[in-house]
């Protein structure tokens, strides 16, 4: 009889224990759900704040651009942004187009790409089709308005004037200058410390040995004094 009574008491307590365990698990699940919702809301609020800060600045910058100090206009077009690398403190102004969807585009530090310029990787025709090749731009490069750049490589400390066309697979060495309204034919090589001008672009002068220091001063001062239109 004692054994039967103990079994009955144990059977009576089992539902209560299982009910308590179920309630505890529900409470734990609710707490976890609330915590996850709180974290999600906080993230959304922080994202909204960051977007508002960017709008107030008049700039659109990805997180990597913020960390490296790049200033990219929201009115520019970056095609294939995963293939575009800006190494730091580079300015891309409004209505610029960078075609990273064709091939990798790498831009050095303290570069300036002014309004309505197009940066496009070079291509070469083969019997089986067309192939695009990466475009590398060095440090302290200044590209003026309304330029079309289809070069294979642009060295450091280079100045490209307004309304220039840099033909496909051109190579611009360090410390050179392209004057306004110049059209370089395809596969042109511009030596260091030279000036090219005209249509087609031909050698027209030489640059001083201090060109590197001059370009560093120009690009750094331009970056430090640069303000978007909303802050002027």
UniProtKB/TrEMBL annotation:
One GO CC term on file: dynactin complex
Top-level taxonomic group: Eukaryota
InterPro entries named in the record: DCTN5, Trimer_LpxA-like_sf
Keyword Cytoplasm: yes
UniProt-annotated location(s): Cytoplasm, Cytoskeleton
Coiled coil: none
Sorted UniProt keywords: Cytoplasm, Cytoskeleton
SUPFAM superfamilies per the UniProt record, alphabetical: Trimeric LpxA-like enzymes (SSF51161)
Family affiliation: Belongs to the dynactin subunits 5/6 family. Dynactin subunit 5 subfamily.
Record's function text: Part of the dynactin complex that activates the molecular motor dynein for ultra-processive transport along microtubules.
Protein name: Dynactin subunit 5
Originating organism: Oryzias melastigma (Marine medaka)
């Amino acid at each position: 009889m004692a054994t039967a009574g103990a079994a009955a008491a144990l059977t009576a307590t089992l539902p209560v224990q299982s009910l308590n365990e179920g309630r505890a698990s529900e409470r734990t699940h609710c707490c976890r759900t609330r915590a996850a919702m709180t974290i999600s809301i906080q993230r959304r609020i922080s994202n909204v704040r960051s977007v508002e800060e960017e709008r107030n600045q008049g700039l659109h910058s990805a997180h990597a651009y913020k960390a490296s100090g790049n200033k990219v206009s929201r009115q520019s077009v970056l095609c294939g942004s995963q293939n575009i690398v800006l190494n730091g403190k580079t300015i891309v102004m409004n209505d610029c187009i960078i075609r990273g969807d064709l091939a990798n585009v790498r831009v050095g530090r303290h570069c300036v790409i002014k309004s309505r310029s197009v940066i496009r990787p070079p291509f070469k025709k083969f019997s089986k089709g067309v192939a695009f090749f990466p475009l590398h731009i060095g440090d302290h490069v200044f590209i003026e308005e309304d330029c079309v750049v289809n070069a294979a490589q642009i060295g450091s400390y280079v100045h490209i004037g307004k309304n220039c066309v840099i033909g496909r697979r051109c190579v611009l060495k360090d410390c050179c200058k392209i004057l306004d309204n110049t059209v370089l034919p395809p596969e042109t090589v511009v030596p260091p410390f030279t000036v090219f001008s005209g249509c087609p672009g031909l050698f027209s002068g030489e640059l001083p040995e201090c060109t590197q220091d001059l370009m560093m001063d120009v690009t750094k001062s331009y970056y430090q004094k640069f303000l978007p239109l909303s802050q002027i």
